[in-house]
């Protein structure tokens, strides 16, 4: 057989047997007598055997193994939409992103995402978009970790908000894994709380936490000198006087403010005072709950008692010590259901759970714990600001003091106490008065009610009444931001907004909304900076505490193979994006960079380094 040249081989392939013709289908010429097999990427010569050389190469183990692999796997490019060939490409990509967003937002599984996409194309065969949607488990997880989560964090960068921001951190264990969420709060002029990162670290020293915080901020282009405050729980590693995270951050930024979690103080105040009572209410609540929760028969018997006393049945609630808002609802449920619960335990002969004394304590605690409950609820609200904090705490203190002075324990409690002998009633009243005393002592120990508290000096900016420039100057001084402002310009800006103050004061709206209206359509950069610093200071660490609730819900025993990166990404998507699923589709359709990232093969770990 003559030696093959490119032109010669082309003629030969067209005129010879089908075996030699299929050479053109899987090989290309490198030189006259050498071909490269595009299936197994190996070279072979046809200079001696011609057609036989082609047959021999096709029968070799390397070629057959590669052919088998190609038959069961498809090129990644077959899963990627080509914009130039499909006019609906953006709609299809946005639909896939929204489908994944829906899965994460509603804590669904990626298996259901995979099944749902296949089902959609079957249910809507006439939809071009539904037919072209392709999003299995691997692709869905990659879209979450490498597309949606990074996009959610981009809103936290320095271009997205006014100058100042605060940092919140905390630590918790998931099994043997120590996890640290890192949250930012800033004013846009809308209060925003975003999860910047969620990382794993086996060390919990002040130096390690400080290093992680500073490195994460620098990675995202956020400057340390623009941090307004640091908030965490009140552990010594966070706020110790010598070697703590706060002290190390203060070395980086001398103007940073210590923003303790005040909700923690209020919760501990009620708990500490309750521990001093002669009746252990935590134990009572949880023992009664346990009595019914472990037995369906006991629950059914309790329902019958409710029917007998002509009351609607309500489930007995449990108190979880680490959940600050669980004690009062549990006590309230026992108090409201007392007639039925008392009758039930009397029928069993267990009189210790049906005494008049326990009824008196339940009535008292139902009255007083609601005050603490309402304060914690107010502090953990989304729109709470530091300029309202001092008045909230002062109101709580005043209520306790007045109750102590008046020996007021609630009208129902007083009526029950009249049924006791005088000496016993006096003993119980003394115990209740001791609750007030203990609570006030704890409150004054852990919260500063003196003039040295900066929160007292910024209360005038809550816009409950008009403020003077002198008050504004005092607030700037205690916040230590005068060096970052032009005070002369600040006065001019104050004069611009002065005519609008009274109108804003009279509005019934959150403080942040009032300030947004006050500064609307004005060129007031210095006054805006003051508001930015002030409203970025958190009053609780609820933003990071909520993360652990999300982790518990997402990282279940059924999803124990999830990585920290995937859980972090899901939490960022849930927390940082506030769109409904319908709104997210409209948002995604307008974000060309987001759509391009979703279509890119770089989102897959195996492709990142290619």
UniProtKB/TrEMBL annotation:
Residues 503-563 form the HAT C-terminal dimerisation domain. GO terms for molecular function: protein dimerization activity. Pfam families: Dimer_Tnp_hAT. PANTHER family: BED-TYPE DOMAIN-CONTAINING PROTEIN, HAT FAMILY DIMERISATION DOMAINCONTAINING PROTEIN-RELATED. This is HAT C-terminal dimerisation domain-containing protein.
């Amino acid at each position: 057989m003559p030696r093959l040249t490119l032109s010669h081989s082309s003629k030969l392939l067209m005129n010879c047997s089908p075996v030699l013709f299929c050479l053109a289908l899987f090989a290309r010429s490198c030189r006259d007598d050498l071909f490269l097999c595009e299936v197994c990427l190996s070279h072979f010569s046809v200079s001696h055997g011609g057609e036989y050389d082609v047959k021999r190469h096709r029968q070799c183990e390397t070629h057959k193994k590669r052919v088998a692999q190609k038959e069961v796997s498809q090129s990644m490019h077959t899963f990627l939409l080509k914009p130039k060939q499909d006019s609906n490409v953006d709609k299809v990509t946005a639909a896939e992103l929204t489908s994944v967003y829906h899965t994460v937002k509603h804590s669904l599984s990626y298996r259901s995402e995979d099944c749902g996409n296949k089902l959609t194309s079957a249910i809507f065969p006439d939809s071009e978009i539904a037919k072209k949607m392709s999003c299995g488990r691997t692709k869905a997880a990659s879209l979450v970790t490498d597309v949606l989560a990074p996009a959610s964090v981009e809103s936290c960068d320095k271009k997205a908000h006014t100058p100042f921001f605060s940092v919140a951190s905390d630590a918790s264990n998931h099994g043997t894994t120590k996890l640290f969420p890192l949250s930012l709060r800033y004013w846009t002029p809308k209060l925003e709380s975003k999860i910047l990162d969620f990382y794993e670290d086996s060390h919990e020293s002040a130096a390690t936490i400080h290093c992680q915080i500073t490195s994460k901020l620098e990675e995202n282009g956020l400057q340390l000198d623009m941090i307004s405050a640091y908030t965490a729980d009140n552990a010594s590693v966070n706020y110790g006087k010598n070697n703590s995270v706060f002290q190390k951050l203060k070395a980086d930024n001398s103007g940073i403010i210590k923003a303790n979690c005040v909700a923690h103080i209020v919760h501990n105040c009620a708990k500490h005072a309750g521990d001093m009572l002669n009746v252990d209410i935590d134990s009572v609540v949880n023992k009664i709950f346990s009595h019914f929760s472990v037995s369906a028969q006991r629950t059914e018997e309790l329902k019958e008692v409710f029917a007998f006393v002509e009351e609607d049945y309500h489930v007995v609630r449990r108190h979880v010590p680490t959940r600050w808002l669980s004690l009062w609802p549990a006590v309230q449920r026992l108090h409201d259901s007392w007639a039925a619960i008392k009758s039930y335990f009397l029928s069993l002969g267990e009189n210790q759970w049906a005494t008049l004394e326990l009824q008196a304590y339940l009535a008292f605690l139902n009255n007083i714990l609601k005050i603490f409950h309402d304060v914690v609820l107010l502090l953990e609200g989304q729109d709470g600001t530091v300029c309202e904090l001092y008045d909230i705490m002062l109101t709580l203190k005043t209520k306790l003091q007045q109750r102590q002075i008046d020996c007021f324990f609630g009208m129902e409690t007083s009526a029950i106490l009249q049924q006791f002998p005088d000496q016993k009633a006096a003993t119980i009243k003394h115990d209740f008065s001791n609750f007030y005393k203990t609570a006030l002592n704890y409150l004054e120990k852990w919260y500063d009610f003196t003039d040295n508290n900066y929160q007292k000096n910024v209360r005038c900016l809550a816009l409950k009444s008009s403020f003077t420039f002198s008050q504004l100057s005092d607030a700037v001084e205690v916040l230590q931001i005068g060096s970052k402002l032009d005070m002369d310009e600040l006065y001019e800006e104050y004069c611009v907004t002065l005519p609008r103050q009274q109108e804003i004061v009279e509005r019934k709206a959150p403080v942040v909304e009032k300030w947004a209206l006050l500064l609307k359509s004005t060129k007031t950069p210095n006054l805006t900076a003051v508001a930015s610093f002030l409203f970025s200071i958190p009053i609780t660490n609820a933003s990071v505490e909520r993360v652990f609730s999300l982790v518990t819900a997402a990282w279940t025993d059924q999803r124990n193979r999830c990585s920290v990166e995937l859980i972090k990404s899901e939490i960022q998507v849930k927390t940082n994006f506030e769109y409904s699923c319908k709104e997210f589709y409209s948002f995604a359709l307008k974000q060309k960079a987001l759509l391009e990232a979703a279509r890119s093969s770089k989102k897959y770990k195996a492709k990142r380094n290619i």
